[in-house]
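Batch manifest, entry 17 of 40.
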Amino acid sequence: MNIIAKVALGAALSVGVAYASTQPEVRSKPPADVPLRPVVESNAVQPGIPAYELQARWSDKMSANILNVPLKNEGDRPMEVIGVQATRGIFIADFPAKVAPGKEDRLSVVYVADENTDGDLEQIRVYTDQGIKEILVRVVRETAVSFDTRELKWTVGDGGETKVVTITTAANTVVPQKVRVTSGHTAVLEKAGEGQWRVKVTPASAVKSGRFAVFVDFDKPLPGTAPVILGVIQARE
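Output type: structure tokens
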């Protein structure tokens, strides 16, 4: 069974990952006031691929510690590691040249969040003389902002009625400052109550189908979050 290990990020990111029965390590000592998350057993995101969870606060931009991810050789001969690649937010700090048969070593990585992106699943691909090994890292980020919908729809010929998206922010996180819209359409930001705002969107025209984006600017950057509303003017069926 694959095991998803939870990795806690506090004021500086601390690590608590597990695969099989092995507890990973951190290069730098985690702060004493940040407890390690308990290990939770679950199936991997995809069968046969080890998967881990990296838990982050809403404002965490990167891991302060090097994260050590287990790499296991399940074969009966030494496994040579030729190279390692990763997706956007994972940077490889170190990897072993070889892993003995039936043994386990470590990939050392650093996580850096891209701002204003929704990507929450990272992938590490290890190129070995026994084929390509894959490892998944899912970033579970504390919610700072939520939208009641991310998509507004109109139909060609219905006119350009105003539609509303409600934004809710967690306390002591961020505050919406303004909205920007593409393609000549109109969007207005209004305060709706404590921790809530309304974005009123009006298309410039609904005579032909198309898409446009409404961007919400906040007073602080949102790592790992894309504050974008999609407007869709769809053809009449």
